[in-house]
């Protein structure tokens, strides 16, 4: 057993440590002046000092920047390290670089913490170190474990140290502080097979109720299960109940959306089919290739290629372990298109987050909940680390803040992918095809993640739900993508799906629905011994895909996978008996009919009601000068610059970007939508955008949904696209829909999705929902705001016609297209004054499409120099953003604004969030042609670009109501998230 | 026109800029093979059959331990002799971003063929963050680099967390600087974010004494067409981006081999 410590040479600044110092100061602990991080490696091996020196010098420590030291502690018979104190700072000057004593005095001004992963949590670095040591020609390393040491300089009392540990250094879900002599390589308990049955048929009501709770069944579902087994004349095996629980979970089957819902005196039989899917059916676009049938939606791109698009959520795992939860959210959504049709290559990510406010006072933080700032930072890091490593550009997204997301953040992860058009439809296996599990190995990761996702969070979630959080390994997933694309193009498999929620139980169970399958669970490759057969079956270990491989292709497939260092294991065979049969070491451990598994679930019956709430109307007077109000809006969490996040994503990888997330003179303005060229040698582009307005949902979820669709489409039009070929995704994140009011709100939103999709001619191609997003503390339940994310992709014939939002030239005209109404209900302006209001922005579904079409025509004629849609903060914020992004001043006159109803307040006019509005920059020489092109739609020239570097806005009375320099506007917008 | 230049783009676990690097070389007229490192190690492909070898960007082996370290170790141990011979044969090697990190950490830069690892490395950015941003670059006068011939200035994106060039005492004066970070007007010493990572002497890329082994942190393959430029909607789009010339230069040279 060897322990190696590597740290930066003492004269070099430690960037990781500097970041930690900033975070520690953020906690209000200002006495820490410096942090140094030490990488610790445990090698289970018996190496010579020569070998250890080679490993350190050539591999683990950088000869230029780092020092190392190692030691070989004695070990007892059970492999435990004897007499070794955890990592301590060293007072002696140079114990590193060679064998030395690890002791040393702990000064009051120097504190040390050693953090290791919990047993069963695998750090991907461990496998890499094993490989690299082998490459060095050194054999005999049996295992590697990693840990981190932190040296904190400065005075710290025990309490502050504990705060730093718990808030920054350790997440108890996956890590612990090493406090005493420890076993770096804990033994895994061995598993002895025994068939577990649940004596369902003999149970009394109380015991049944316990089973119902344990597996998350409804009463009706459990009754159906009891009836099924009564007919079989036997009790269920545990693994059968697990399978039913996973397959029938809200996460997998979306039973609320498929429920019988009584609402407003009518019964809705399957909300999904009667709204969102219905719009797609009625629109019947010939370019829709695969909709609501597979893991993602597929549309035709150019006759040769198809685009595949999916957005998912990973909310509950991100609440308890933000980094890992968000990382595996990316990993999971990337596997959706990979498991759609015969497999699509991911080419773009879009991520939308909803958090509590980063400045939430500690006293408002519920017990057992991580601070929003930490969740935000962790989620950002998890998403960036995973997506950047996969080499997928993150080009689009949004971040929203509301106190009600504090305990239940939302993490939407979306992936756009590309595949040959003729491989876009779901494949079909044949009896006799082999079930092949490829990619990562199976461990205890994420066991019961699905049922966790479908339950509400409580203050104990952090302590009880640890097995639900999975540790992602992006490089394994990258290898899987690379090799699968080759296997696909060689035609080596007939069907593919991902192992996601519910693990093998869902993936195999769904794939084999039409045929039947037998699985030998002992053939599943494991990360470590000791898993029971039912743990293997429901484990949600990441980076795994499932293939149906014809026997004659197996050899070629296996050698291809071997070349790319990816595991592929045959774990069973598809049959023709329409049964799911599970074996472990030859014993039949589970046997279910596909008919019951997929058709036996009794539908939910739900009540839904909805009544528009009445909020207090604001009573403050219109300020005479709106400069301060504009600066406050620009600096609000929802509006402010997200550059700190965006820059840490790779948005250029794959070389396809045409319009980036940050645009303008200094590449720091907020672009409306991203454009990429998915096929590098074609000029055809795809636009990606999103719309999300949870604050409108408290007033009316119908208009929230319609606004979200309008916003996503506005952005497509704003960057130069059109509505000819636009596909939508819906993603509902809702509170507890067992409550009739909550479900009523969901019904309203779904109805608006239907109406909007038809009005704009833009079909939904896929979607997802995450319900039960609520948090309970001391008997009080907080539901998240109703949150609907609409994601859109639009195809652009010529990507070189893209338009960015920054003002381009002095002396150009600034037009406002669309009508402004007195619509500030749920607006950012009202929110900054502490009001919600009632006048929610509506959408003129009759005319909005025509308006967008005529603007698209103007951009196609190259008449538009810049275009920006009006959203949070209305005209005021949009004008300011266009001005400082372009580095040009502007004047605007509110008297010229086309109104839909009489308005007499400058502030309402300037900050109304009415939908379907655009600010457009047009050169004077194109004035006539532009106005002709837009005839029939409401528009007006409201201002001009200037060389003053100031934004000047005149109110209804002709008085100047805003006069601000671009520098101060930009500073207000950039300051909040300059972290 | 001479026969097409066979170019090997090397791939390993975690390489992720391979497709656009292949595209850039094909646009420039090369005959490109995308080869997995395992194919070279197993002898299924021979380095000697190619005239250019490229290590593209990515996170090889997750950048576990340190960026590029594990692939560097693998190449040095398993293919070191082949690579040194490749260089001695007058052929070209290009390492972009992670590829640059690999070349340095394997000791193929700044001077191939040495027993001991060199006294320079690429370390964590001063900002402590992975950052994706566009940078202005200048080619120093009298640079021997084959790849940057005829180029004075470039505008390219960087996207990395470990791009800060750090050297031991005395190494700097020996380096063949091939590319420097500058401000918009071409001046060095402008600090962050013009120099996005805190590299010593604003160094963005170096080459060996022959100019045929070149490593750089910025991504020329991400700026080969005009509409990749972040301000093209303001300035108008040119047909080719700044980075394209680097690939053309490589082919022009290799065609004569």
Describe the structure.
The complex is a heterodimer of chains A (979) and B (257). Chain A is an alpha+beta fold and 979 residues long. In chain A, strands 17-19-15-20-18-21-22 form a seven-stranded mixed β-sheet. Chain A has a seven-stranded mixed β-sheet with strand order 35-37-34-38-36-39-40, sandwiched between helices. In chain A, strands 3-1-2-5-4-6 form a six-stranded antiparallel β-sheet. In chain A, α12 runs parallel beside α16. The longest helix of chain A is centred in the last third of the chain and has 21 residues. Chain A is globular, with a radius of gyration of 29 Å. Chain B is α/β, with parallel strands linked by helices. Chain B has one domain: Class I glutamine amidotransferase (GATase) domain (Rossmann fold, 3-Layer(aba) Sandwich), CATH 3.40.50.880. Helices cover 23% and strands 24% of the residues of chain B. Chain B has seven helices and eleven strands. Chain B has a nine-stranded mixed β-sheet with strand order 2-1-3-4-11-10-9-6-7. Chain B has a two-stranded antiparallel ribbon with strand order 5-8. In chain B, a hairpin with a 5-residue loop joins β10 and β11. In chain B, α3 packs across α5. The mean pLDDT of chain B is 95. Chains A and B meet through α1, α2, α3, α13 and α16 of A and α1, α3, β5 and β6 of B.
In short:
The complex is a heterodimer of chains A (979) and B (257). With 979 residues, chain A is of the alpha+beta class.
Keywords:
heterodimer; A: 979 residues; alpha+beta; 7-stranded mixed beta sheet; B: 257 residues; alpha/beta; Rossmann fold; 9-stranded mixed beta sheet; 7 helices; globular
């Amino acid at each position: 057993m060897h322990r190696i410590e590597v740290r930066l040479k003492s004269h070099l600044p430690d960037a990781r440590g500097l970041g930690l110092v900033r975070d520690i100061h953020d906690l209000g602990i200002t006495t820490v002046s410096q942090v140094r991080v030490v990488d610790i490696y445990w090698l289970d091996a018996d190496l010579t000092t020569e070998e250890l020196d080679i490993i350190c010098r050539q591999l683990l420590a950088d000869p230029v920047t780092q020092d190392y030291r190692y030691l070989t502690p004695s070990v007892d018979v059970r492999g435990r390290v004897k007499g070794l104190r955890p990592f301590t700072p060293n007072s002696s000057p140079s114990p590193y670089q060679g064998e030395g004593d690890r002791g040393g005095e702990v000064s009051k001004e120097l504190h040390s913490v050693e953090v290791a992963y919990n047993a069963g949590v695998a750090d991907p670095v461990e496998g890499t170190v094993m490989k690299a040591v082998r490459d060095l020609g050194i054999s005999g390393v049996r295992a590697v474990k990693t840990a981190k040491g932190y040296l904190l300089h400065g005075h710290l009392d025990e309490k502050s140290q504990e705060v730093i540990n718990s808030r920054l250094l350790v997440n108890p879900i996956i890590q612990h502080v090493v406090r005493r002599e420890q076993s770096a390589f804990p033994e895994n308990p061995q598993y002895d097979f025994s068939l577990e049955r649940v004596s369902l048929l003999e149970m009394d009501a109380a015991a049944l109720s316990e089973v119902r709770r344990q597996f998350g069944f409804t009463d009706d579902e459990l009754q159906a299960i009891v009836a099924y087994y009564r007919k079989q004349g036997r009790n269920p095996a545990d693994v059968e109940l697990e399978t039913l629980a996973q397959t029938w979970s809200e996460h997998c089957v979306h039973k609320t959306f498929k429920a019988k819902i009584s609402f407003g005196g009518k019964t809705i039989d399957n909300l999904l089919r009667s709204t969102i899917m219905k719009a797609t059916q009625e629109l019947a676009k010939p370019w829709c290739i695969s909709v609501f049938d597979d893991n993602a939606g597929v549309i035709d791109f150019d006759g040769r290629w198809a685009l595949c698009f999916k957005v998912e959520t990973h909310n509950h795992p991100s609440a308890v372990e933000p980094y890992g939860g968000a990382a595996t959210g990316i990993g999971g959504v990337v596997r959706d298109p990979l498991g759609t049709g015969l497999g699509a290559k991911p080419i773009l990510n879009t991520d939308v987050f909803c958090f509590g406010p980063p400045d939430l006072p500690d006293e408002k933080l519920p017990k057992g909940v991580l601070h929003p700032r930490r969740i935000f930072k962790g989620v950002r890091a998890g998403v960036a680390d995973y997506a950047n490593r996969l080499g997928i550009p993150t080009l689009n997204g949004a971040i929203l803040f509301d106190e009600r997301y504090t305990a239940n953040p939302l993490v939407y992860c979306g992936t756009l992918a590309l595949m040959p058009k003729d491989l876009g439809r779901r494949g079909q296996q044949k009896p006799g095809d082999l079930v092949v599990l490829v990619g990562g190995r199976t461990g205890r990761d994420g066991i019961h993640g699905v049922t966790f996702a479908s339950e509400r969070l409580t203050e104990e979630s952090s302590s009880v739900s640890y097995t639900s959080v999975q540790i992602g390994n992006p490089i394994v997933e990258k290898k899987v993508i690379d090799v699968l694309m080759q296997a696909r193009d060689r035609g080596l498999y007939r069907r593919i799906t991902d192992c996601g929620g519910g693990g093998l139980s869902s993936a195999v169970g769904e794939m084999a629905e039409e045929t039947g399958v037998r699985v030998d669970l002992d053939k599943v490759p494991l990360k470590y011994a000791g898993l029971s057969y039912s743990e293997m079956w429901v484990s949600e270990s990441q980076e795994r895909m499932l293939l149906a491989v014809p026997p004659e292709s197996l050899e070629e497939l296996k050698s291809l996978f071997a070349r790319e260092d990816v595991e592929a294991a045959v774990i069973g065979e598809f049959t023709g008996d329409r049964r799911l049969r599970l074996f472990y070491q030859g014993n039949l451990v589970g046997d279910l009919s596909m008919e019951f598994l997929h058709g036996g679930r009794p539908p939910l019956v739900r009540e839904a009601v909805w009544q528009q709430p009445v909020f207090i109307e604001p009573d403050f007077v219109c300020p005479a000068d709106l400069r301060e109000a504009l600066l406050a809006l620009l600096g609000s969490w929802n509006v402010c610059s997200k550059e700190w996040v965006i820059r840490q994503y790779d948005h250029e990888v794959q070389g396809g970007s045409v319009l980036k997330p940050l645009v303008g003179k200094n590449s720091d303005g907020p672009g409306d939508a991203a454009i990429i060229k998915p096929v590098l040698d074609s000029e055809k582009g795809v636009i990606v955008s999103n719309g999300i307005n949870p604050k409108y949902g408290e007033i009316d979820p119908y208009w929230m949904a319609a606004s979200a669709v309008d916003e996503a489409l506005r952005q497509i039009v704003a960057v130069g696209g059109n509505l000819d070929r636009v596909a939508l995704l819906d993603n509902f994140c809702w509170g507890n829909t067992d409550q009739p009011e909550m479900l009523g709100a969901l019904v309203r939103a779904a109805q608006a999705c239907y109406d909007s999709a038809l009005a704009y001619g833009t079909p939904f191609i896929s979607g997802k929902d995450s319900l039960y997003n609520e948090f309970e503390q001391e008997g009080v339940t907080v539901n998240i705001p109703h949150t609907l994310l609409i994601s859109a992709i639009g195809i652009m014939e010529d990507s070189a016609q893209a338009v960015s939002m920054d003002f381009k030239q002095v002396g150009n005209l600034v037009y406002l297209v669309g009508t402004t109404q007195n619509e500030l209900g749920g607006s950012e302006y009202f929110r900054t004054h502490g009001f919600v209001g009632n006048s929610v922005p509506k959408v003129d579904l009759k005319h909005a499409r025509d308006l967008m079409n005529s603007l698209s025509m103007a951009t196609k004629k190259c008449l538009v120099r810049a275009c920006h849609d009006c959203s949070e903060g209305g005209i005021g914020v949009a004008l300011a953003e266009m001005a400082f992004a372009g580095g040009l001043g502007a004047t605007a006159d509110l008297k010229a604004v086309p109104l839909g109803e009489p308005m007499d307040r400058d502030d309402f006019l300037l900050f109304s969030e009415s939908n379907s509005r655009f600010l457009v920059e047009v050169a004077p020489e194109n004035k006539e042609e532009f106005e002709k092109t837009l005839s029939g739609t409401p528009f007006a020239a409201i201002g001009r670009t200037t060389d003053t570097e100031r934004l000047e806005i005149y109110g209804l009375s002709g008085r100047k109501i805003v006069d601000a320099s671009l520098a101060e506007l930009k500073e207000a917008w950039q300051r909040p998230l300059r972290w | 026109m001479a026969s097409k230049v066979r170019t090997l783009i090397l791939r390993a676990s975690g390489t992720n800029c391979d497709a656009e690097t292949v595209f850039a070389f094909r646009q420039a007229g090369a005959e490109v093979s995308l080869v997995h490192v395992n194919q070279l190690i197993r002898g299924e492909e021979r380095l000697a059959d190619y005239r250019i070898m490229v290590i593209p960007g990515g996170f090889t082996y997750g950048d576990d331990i340190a960026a590029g370290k594990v692939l560097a170790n693998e190449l040095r141990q398993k293919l070191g002799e082949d690579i040194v011979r490749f260089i001695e044969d007058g052929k070209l090697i290009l390492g972009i971003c992670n590829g640059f990190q690999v070349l340095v950490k394997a000791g193929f830069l700044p001077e191939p063929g040495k027993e001991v690892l060199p006294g320079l490395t690429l370390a964590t950015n001063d900002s402590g963050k992975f950052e994706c941003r566009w940078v202005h670059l200048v080619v120093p006068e009298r640079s021997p680099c084959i790849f940057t011939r005829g180029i004075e200035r470039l505008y390219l994106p960087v996207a990395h967390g470990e791009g800060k060039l750090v050297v031991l005492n005395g190494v700097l004066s020996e380096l063949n600087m091939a590319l420097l970070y500058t401000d918009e007007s071409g001046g060095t010493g402008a600090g962050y974010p013009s120099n996005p990572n805190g590299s010593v002497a604003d160094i963005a890329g170096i080459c060996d004494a022959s100019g045929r082994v070149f490593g750089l942190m910025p991504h020329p393959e991400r700026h080969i067409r005009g509409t990749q430029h972040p301000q093209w909607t303001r300035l108008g789009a040119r047909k080719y981006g700044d980075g394209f010339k680097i690939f053309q230069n490589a082919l022009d040279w290799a065609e004569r081999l």
